[in-house]
Amino acid sequence: MGEPAPAPGEPYPKLKAHDLTRVFGRTPHTVDALGPLDLSVAPGEFVCLVGPSGCGKSTLLRIAAGLLRPSTGTLEIRTSLRPDMRLRRVARPAAMIFQDYGIYDWKTVRANVRFGLDIQRVPRRSANARADEWLARMGLSDFAHAYPATLSGGMRQRVAIARALAVEPELLLMDEPFAALDAQLRTILQDELLDLTQTTRTTTLFITHSLEEAIVLGDRVLVMSARPGRIIAEHHPPFPRPRTGDIRATPAFTSLKSELWDLLRKEAAPA
C-alpha cells in the first residue's frame, strides 16, 4: 500500500519517520540508541529537537542525512521537482551543518560555499555566481578568497550555512551548530538564522541543547526521552511569524522555557 494521503488542505510531509530505531553493537553487547520513533515535518517547517545527552538526537539527523541506516523502521524525504528550482535534484536531498563547521581548511571561503554545487556538476560560472550570492547574504563577500583558519568561529559557521543553502536543499539538518560559540555570538547567529529561514522557508530539523534557541527558532519544539530516544512531548511556541529575538523578553517565552526544562530535568536525571 502507498503512503496515505493527507487531510484536505494539508501538504505531504517533507520528512516522515515511522517506527524508526537504531541499535549499535552486536549481541550481546548492543546499545539501543534511538526509538521506536515517529516524526513528521511539513514543508517549510522549522522543527527543533531537544533532549538529554546521548538520547539519539544526532543519530536521527545522521539517518536523515543518509550517513547511517536505521536498524528498523523507515525515514523518507519527499523531494519536489518544481520547475522554478535553479539547480537539479540530487540523490540525497538533505544538507547537514555540524557543530564543528565541517568546512575544508584548504579551500577558500568561496570554494567551500561552492563545494556542493561542484559535486552537482553545476557549470563553474553559475556555481560562482550562486556562491557569491550566498556570501553576500551571509555578510562574507569581503572574505571570499580567505581561508577558514583566518576566520572567527561565527564566520566559519556562516560559511557552513551558506554552503548548505547554496544547493537549495529539500531539507536542512543542523546538529547543534552554535554550541561551540560564546553566548553573545550565539544569540547573534540565532537571530540571523531566524531571519534567513523565515525568508527562504527551508524545511529545517534542528538539534540543540539550548531551550532558548529552540523556542526562538522553532515552529515546533519536540522533547526527546533519555536513551533510547523517543518523542515524549510537542510544543508550539506561541509567537507568530515573522518573529524576532525580542520574544526572549516576553512572559510567554519564560513560561514555555520553564515548562520545557521541567520535562527535560526528569529525563536528564536517569541519563
From TrEMBL:
The keyword Transport applies. Signal peptide: none annotated. Pfam families: ABC_tran. The keyword Transcription does not apply. It comes from the Bacteria. Keywords: ATP-binding, Glycosyltransferase, Nucleotide-binding, Transferase, Transport. Residues 15-251 form the ABC transporter domain. GO terms for molecular function: ATP binding; ATP hydrolysis activity; glycosyltransferase activity. This is Mannosyltransferase.
